[in-house]
Specification:
alpha/beta; 5-stranded parallel beta sheet; 43% helix; 13 strands; 13 helices; Rossmann fold; 2 domains; 6-stranded antiparallel beta sheet
């Protein structure tokens, strides 16, 4: 068995979506190089050695079985996969992602391709500061000074500020910090399937809407005017009780919660189905309940075109759904978008599904996951 070694890396980006570049790089390192065991805070710094946009920088500690040269080779592959194009000429330039090896255990290495410890380490405040956050007593094997001493002696006076951004070792760690995600969508959009896949893949507690046994639902689809009010009142009572129970009872063996509905859907559907007087009465009762329920960290709305929704409904074959009209589905879509616009303070993410088939195609599923991650990584800590 190969011995694991600890390496310290510095990462920086100053092009495009900088924080996402750093996050994707850490994900790739964790997956292809070795476990990321510690991540520093993210710092914003002025460009070093040239005029350009500010950088975002961080340092990580990893465990790896790769030797120093193999580690360098793999890190260059990661940079290339993320879109970095290395220039052949000397000098500094803006970069999508830059990954440097600072230390490799307590070893030294000197050749034309790789020098460890990194020769510029003592002169770079934007490297020493995040490194001091995760390894303050780490000794430089040549200078025989720890990170804190190197930082105190550093002459670099470039601007450096700690940010509120957070970067995670892997996707599961990121999802665990979201606490509660609600996935919503029109009838047939696939919200339940997506919630199940996310819960299974990232160890989430699954909260599913239970409505199959509602005695008013089949009757509603055959005579909406007559059965709309008892149906919506029944849904509201069931959803409130279930939602409150499920979202207040934490599972110690799960890292977060993901639901295939949000209780606000009750008001959206009621506005479409109820008469004006009925809806006003319903709304008063709803808002009394809504103040008490848990709100999601991210509210995801899966948008799908009406023709595709109808095709999905037909495919899953629930007899009582086959009479749903395109007009009804379009009203539901409009209701959701009105809700999203009415709560701009909520972290709303609309994902347009189009031709994505996240059930049969793992790549399409990853596309949706990456959309969620891109959204989540930009949320305030």
């Amino acid at each position: 068995m190969k011995t694991k070694k600890t390496a310290y890396l510095s990462l920086g980006s100053n092009i495009a979506d900088k924080i996402l570049n750093l996050q994707n790089a850490v994900f790739a390192i964790h997956q292809s190089v070795g476990p990321v065991i510690t991540i520093s805070p993210v710092y914003q710094s002025s460009s070093w050695g040239f005029e350009s946009d500010d950088f975002l920088n961080l340092c990580v500690a990893i465990e790896t079985t790769l030797d120093p040269h193999a580690l360098l080779t793999q890190l260059l592959i990661v940079e290339k996969q993320l879109g970095r194009i290395r220039m052949q000429e000397d000098g500094y330039a803006p970069r999508l992602i830059d990954i440097d090896i600072l230390y490799y255990n307590n070893e030294t290495c000197f050749n034309k391709d790789l020098v460890i410890p990194h020769p510029e380490l003592p002169f770079r405040n934007f490297v020493l500061r995040p490194l001091a956050d995760i390894a303050p007593q780490l000794y430089h094997p040549i200078l025989q000074k720890d990170t804190r001493n190197l930082l105190q002696e550093c002459k670099d006076k470039g601007r450096l500020e700690k940010t509120t951004w957070r970067v995670y070792a892997d996707k599961a760690s990121l999802f665990s910090q979201l606490n509660f995600i609600a996935i919503e969508g029109n009838i047939g959009a696939g919200k339940t399937t997506l919630a199940k896949k996310i819960a299974e893949k990232y160890n989430g507690k699954l909260v599913l809407e239970r409505f199959a046994d509602n005695p008013f639902l089949p009757k509603f689809y055959s005579d909406q005017r007559r059965y709309a009010f008892p149906l919506e009142m029944s849904f509201l009572a069931d959803r409130y009780q279930q939602f409150t129970d499920d979202t207040t009872q934490y599972d110690l063996f799960k890292d977060f919660m993901v639901s295939d509905y949000d209780i606000y859907k009750s008001l959206i559907f009621a506005k479409v189905t109820l008469q004006k007087e009925e809806f006003e009465l319903y709304r008063k009762l709803f808002h009394l309940m809504y103040r008490e329920v848990k709100k999601p960290k991210i509210y995801i709305y899966l948008y799908q075109s009406t023709p595709q929704l109808l095709a999905n409904i037909k495919k899953r074959g629930r007899e009582y759904e086959q009479s749903i009209s395109s007009e009804y589905l379009e009203k539901i879509n409009s209701g959701y978008f009105e809700f999203i616009k009415s709560y701009p303070e909520q972290n709303n993410l609309v994902i347009e599904l189009g031709d994505l088939d996240f059930v049969a195609n793992e790549q399409d599923f990853n596309t949706i996951i990456n959309s969620i991650i891109k959204f989540a990584i930009h949320l305030p800590s």
